[in-house]
Amino acid sequence: MAEMTYRDALKQALRDAMAEDDTVMVIGEEVGRYGGAYGVTKGLYEEFGPDRLIDTPISEPAIVGAAVGAAMSGLRPVAELMYVDFIGMTMDQLGNQAAKIRYMFGGQVGVPMVLRTQGGTGRSAGAQHSQSLEAYVMHTPGLRLVMPATVSDAYHLLRQSLRQPDPVVFIEHKALYTMKEDVDLAAPAPEWGKARVHRTGDDLVIVTYSRQLHHALAAAEAMARKGVEATVIDLRSLNPLDFDTVRAHVERVGRVMVVSEGVMTAGVGAELSARIHEECFDFLAEPVIRVCGEDIPISVSVELEKNSVPTAAFIQTAGEKLVGLRSAA
Amino acid sequence: MTAPIDTAVAEKVPRSNTGLLALYRQMRRVRTFEERVGELFVRGQSAGSMLHLSIGEESAAVGVASLMRDGDTFTTHHRGHGIFLARGADPNRMMAEIGGKEEGYCRGKGGSMHIADMGLGHLGANAIVGGGIPAVVGAGLASKREGKGAVSIAFFGDGAMQQGILYESMNMAALWDLPVIFVCINNQYGMGTRIEQATKGRALHERGLAFGLNSETVDGLDVRDVRAAAGRIIDGARGGTPGFLAVECYRFFGHARMDKSPYRTPEDEERGRAKDPVGFARKALVESGESSEAVLDALDAEIAREMDATIDFTVAAREPALQTMFRDVYAPGEPEPESVAARIDRILAGD
Fold first, then answer.
1. For chain A, which residues make up each domain, given as ranges?
2. Domain-by-domain residue ranges, chain B?
3. Is the ipTM of this complex over 0.85?
4. Which pLDDT band, with edges at 50, 70 and 90, does B11 fall under?
5. Is residue B180 within 8 angstroms of chain A, CB to CB?
6. What is the rounded (10 degree) CA torsion for B326, B329, B332, B338?
7. Spatial separation of the C-alpha atoms in residues A82 and A31, rounded to whole Å
């Protein structure tokens, strides 16, 4: 066991993958000499050289497009998109090319690439550098979507993403890079595509992922002090989506909140809510509650930004309303 | 090549890609194939109406493809039948793909605009203008690492000259000295918009020069000129200097099968169709004595039979089985997406 940051766990995953497989290469803006805008690749350029860490001009569509062509040609590229907010720039290469090539070409070839990026609030970075755009990706068949919330998952899920036969969009959270955790990287990796139940309680289920896991756990602890016990599920990946784990706990408990930093409308929370309503209808004591980002852009103002997305206190309040004030019992 | 050729020629026509007769043969195959694509559509056997014929652009396809080697890769645009055929595609499997049939290159899932074949290095046709261009940068990175001199070529039309992705890709190819070539087949039209209505900068190779690429514009009338220019550009790329080639052509027919070209007059079309690389090559073969009308008629008839057979092949081919619909969204062995019907039944089964 060793204490490690989320950032260093990601770097270690890249380092181990690159050492193990010389087709793995990183391509993106500032990934080499600079070491990555958030420092994830710092030091790897010195270790692996300019052919494995390719600094690019500011050309997001061509970065992703080049990764697609490289992946079709026997390499295993890790394209880095500095902010997920730039994903719109790349959406043709990601959504029309990477996601569909295996299918359009009748299974002749896959696109085993990883698009690493980061999103979310927490740094007063404004409306174009703070978004949570995972729904754009989840809405596109053919793309895997991974969003690690813990240091251990940052390592293991990135290693696993680099072994996938299909394109993976790997979205880190900018507020988690300095988070520390004791991890044992030699420990067996979690099963790919499997959610993790961090806490089990009988009063409500909180389904979440990425940084909101930590807010949900804090809210659950606060509720526990008032005698309300929550189950907290971290989905880890949104594609594949481990709905079996969600279903098992929803059917047991009957009250559910879906917590996500992305805006509410037509978002990940909407999809989860719809599935839970459809598949667990007979087991629900209350409607599924979406605790999501407000349907607004993100402000630079610290206070406005913080309150644009769920906070631990907000999740706690919503949870208490769900189990108490509106309880049918 | 001056040896006389008798009329039982078709099998004897050299398949090496060097002489004008061989280039003519490939261009005629492209043109006849495209004509059959039109027939397939008229007969209601095509899987879609999105059929973009490359008639008038045969010299670009054949001139460049005749210089490609094993290991080279390429992407094409939506008007790419000729390029793939010239590179050695099986016309039966091409036509079957255009018809959306199981026997097609992509098992009926790709069609005209998404045909591909890893065996021939075809990394895919593309229905997004410019969409296939950056893939050659990635393929070029892989080729450079491998060091065997393989090139990767992006083919696109003049419409893509106004797409930003082209310039991002040209810049990267030049910056990293990649064995990559950008071939613009300038047929003068982006759908219904003439190039004069799309850009003031019509010396297209100047854009390549601006990024440090070997760049030329060549008239597409004489396939030998196209081949010579392509040879210079491709040789440069094999040596690590990427290139750009614009081939000036004329799109004989509308943008797609339903387009009756209301934006141009019959006189415009007559003038444009004077730039006919197939007719020009034929005339040159006869006038030089390299071939004769009779020999070429026999060759054309043989090609017509070959391409007629593609329609029979396609009509007889199978529709893909319905359950293949969920296959190849993800890799083999991964769970396939659940169908809407199956999900509904599963949800309601509990009631």
1. 2-183, 196-325
2. 20-322
3. yes
4. very low
5. no
6. -40
7. 9
